[in-house]
């Protein structure tokens, strides 16, 4: 099944253009992109600041490898590091979230001299061989086994099980501050703090995968800031270039100092760097993370009132929202698209995932609530 199908046999929708939180099909139908194309467009589609930056850069210099200093890359690095929690002083760009997580695991093993990786059940860290080894769901892994070894999984959110797994042979603990693909799972209070304490005691690296939770989505620039916990390695991608393919990692000095050689031909290309700089600068200057927090509270409150007993739970932070349904999420996502012109995403079998662009307003949030109410009520 294609990633672009809602369910097996569903009708794909040809997309022609986009603006803000809306996408337009080839027949001119307007859709609310309630998934921000898998959280890749935090500023919405075709944001003028990003479009202008990319167009200007591609007209001056499309590409030169990272061994040559380029101003757009230097600007992007500076903006990215400045946006991350204090203590993460060095950074590296790549091309995707899975590549960022691959680098994070490599850096952790190199810097610590250990090999064991502790990951969580229901985690998703990517589809390449190393990141896939730390991903929980068997359906992603079985065709490619055996994968890289020495990975131990523990129940997400269980501090005692995490404590039992982290030992002197642990190179890294890799966690999503809020699990995305696994069902929008918010950890209990104190869990991320415990992970920080355990890795400090063991001399292991704490890696936070913020590929989906970052870039202002949870009401802070990075989800780990909501818990007041700074990792040794922070990975991100998706919304970093507001739709252009780019990933990044930010690391503490001890990780950078202990990391072996690592590079990629297209890392930090001038055009994607221009997009990164424009995206981060706009998010920070226009205070879109704070807007995401406000709109997330509004949307959850309205959904709670409208859906009430028709759903099991509504959870998340900011504009990372999961609705635990009483029926299949694929079916609801299909009905929203075909009948309500709302594009949403499943996150597992029964969770509907809402990741709208951070620029949505109350009117658009009300449209989402009305559409969901109509579909969920018709399914009850």
Descriptive report:
- By secondary structure, this protein is of the alpha/beta class.
- The protein folds into two domains: 48-285, Aspartate Aminotransferase, domain 2, CATH 3.40.640; 287-350, Aspartate Aminotransferase, domain 1 (Alpha-Beta Complex), CATH 3.90.1150.
- The protein has helices spanning 36-39, 48-60, 71-83, 97-112, 129-133, 138-141, 159-165, 191-202, 223-227, 253-258, 270-285, 288-307, 329-340, 362-379, and strands at 15-19, 22-25, 30-33, 90-94, 116-120, 151-154, 170-175, 205-209, 233-236, 247-251, 313-317, 320-324, 342-343, 345-346, 351-354.
- A seven-stranded mixed beta sheet has the order 4-10-9-8-7-5-6, sandwiched between helices.
- α3 (71-83) packs parallel to α11 (270-285) and α12 runs parallel beside α14.
